[in-house]
């Protein structure tokens, strides 16, 4: 039989358990997560950490803000062109931002303690870069290439190279600032990809190009191959002869080579003799005219003078003197030399191909380009830039008549 005092003792711990359970429910209601927004912060209050009894919070900053190093609040980021000098003291305070120094830039909003250093363009001979726009406080230097050039890579280490002209082929896709021309070779040629150049199949020594050349080869029947070769050869010869005749007539029509005399040998008797001798010659026989001029000159000059010196004194002294940079002198040379042979004339004088192409690229007008190339040669040749040197080159180019024409033009000035 259970004594009555036992039930009274049992009720006491049961009541204590009920009281603790009710207290726990009330605490749980107050500890439910309650999100609340602060300036630039989305904060959440979570349950107690039972191990330490301390409250724990996770802070997430909005776009355009960053978390303070202490993890207590968020700060507004600095604008582009500036950097962070000092953190904000509270979520409602602004940080201290400073403008980037000279030679530095910052392209976006940031919390960086310093700006980035401007990178100069690599304009040396290895990269050939040019500066498209200078560095600003919010943008780095923009580097690029000249027109008709492309970048080999898309990073800052790119090299500028000239666009391919697809010789022995056709352009399938034009050159862009970031890619070279895409070429499609004609039949009988293959594309050498590392050079982007169409080479003849006769120079093919690898399997990949041999496969291409074999695919594009036209198979002919043995019985008709020789006859076809003969016909093609005959047509080629006829076409070449006709084209040569057309070119010669065009040159004679638009670029006639005038026969002039030096101002130092202005004997009227010499001109009359030459006129009478050349009147019976054909107009197109330029070699016969030159021969008569040489013979006539030898007959008029005294024997001692003809044997004692190669040229008259006035011509020799003028040719050995460095030509003047006067526009009158330079234009006299330009007017005498045919336009179609001007680049050849400059190459014989010693001007490099790159210099000639650069000047003609910079000066779209042909006459301005001629003038600048002649000035450039005079500057580089220095004391060797004489009329004697010009005469030697013109003689080598079979343009001896231009020498007397230059001397006649200068004598009239």
Description:
By secondary structure, the chain is of the alpha+beta class. 42% of the residues lie in helices and 16% in strands. The protein has helices at residues 4-30, 207-215, 222-254, 268-278, 286-300, 303-308, 313-320, 327-336, 342-349, 353-362, 366-381, 387-396, 400-411, and strands at 36-38, 41-48, 55-61, 65-67, 74-76, 82-86, 96-99, 104-105, 116-117, 130-133, 142-144, 149-151, 160-162, 169-173, 182-185, 189-192, 197-200. Helix 8 (327-336) packs antiparallel against helix 13. The protein is elongated.
Structural key phrases:
413 residues; alpha+beta; Tumor Necrosis Factor Receptor, subunit A, domain 2; two-stranded antiparallel sheet; 13 helices; elongated
